[in-house]
Amino acid sequence: SAPLRNFYAQTTEDERFLIINGSEGTSGNIVLIKDLSSATNSFVTVVGDFKNDHNVVDNVGDEILMMTNLNAPNN
Fold it and tell me: How far apart are CA 56 and CA 35, in angstroms?
């Protein structure tokens, strides 16, 4: 059990992708994404640890655009 974990959901602007973000504090998060274009698609873990900050900005077709501080101190 992880009582300090918080999760929130969002979609890309075109509502094609469902994004689940999870955090345990003020820094670092996990990201799971599901392509909603097919009912049989599953969630894909894009980031599975809480070591860095990652934010989905949007998508361009099949590509997800993310902002991160992983190896990028200025994001």
Answer: 14
- Which residue in 42, 66, 63, 64 sits closest to 52, CA to CA? 66
What is the pTM (predicted TM-score) of this model?
0.89
**Segments of the chain scoring below 70 in pLDDT:** 1
Tokens (6 digits) for 7: 């999760």
3-class secondary structure per residue, the chain: CCCCCEEEEEECCCCCEEEEEEECCCCCEEEEEEECCCCCCCCEEEECCCCCCEEEEEEECCEEEEEECCCCCCC
Contact 75, 68 (CB under 8 A): yes
